[in-house]
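Lay summary. Proteins are chains of building blocks that fold into shapes, and those shapes determine what they do. In this project we predict the shape from the chain. Here is one chain we studied, written as its sequence of building blocks.
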Amino acid sequence: MVREHGEAEAAGIVESFSQQMRALAETTHKRAQLTASATASAGRVTVTVNADSVVIATKFSSDIDDLDFDEIAKAVTAAAQNAAAEIKRKTDELFQPLKDERARMPKLSELFEGMPDLELTPAPAATLAAPNSRERLAQEGAPAPEFTGAEDYDDWRSGQGTGITDRNW
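And here is the predicted shape, written in a compact code that computers can read:
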């Protein structure tokens, strides 16, 4: 009787695992179809990303020429970052039922004595700092750029000016 109970329990676990694998495959397929869009600069820039947060479309409104190049660049970056945040939210929402089901499942250590539990630690969030910015360099452990031999503007301005901007040139 004990053996039959153990076999039935094992069969139930295997069936539950099989159902989870099917649900995972279906959810992964649905995830691959996800997209997210975000706008910036009062709707002048719209960026759409796929499920991997890769930009798949960028659109400018007809009044984009109201912005200078720096403003357009900042708007594209902001819209892309917001779209990526939205795709992460959608992905988390899509996978939440699977996470909930997994939490209800027994751990390996509960099924097999001495078996370690497998826990995945989430990867740290990637920085949104610009390349070579102080924040990015600090996270990489690289020294921030230092400027030596630079003259303070106010000191330079108060001096006689002997550089290329000297009026005597």
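What the prediction tells us: Residues 161 and 167 are 8 Å apart (CA to CA).
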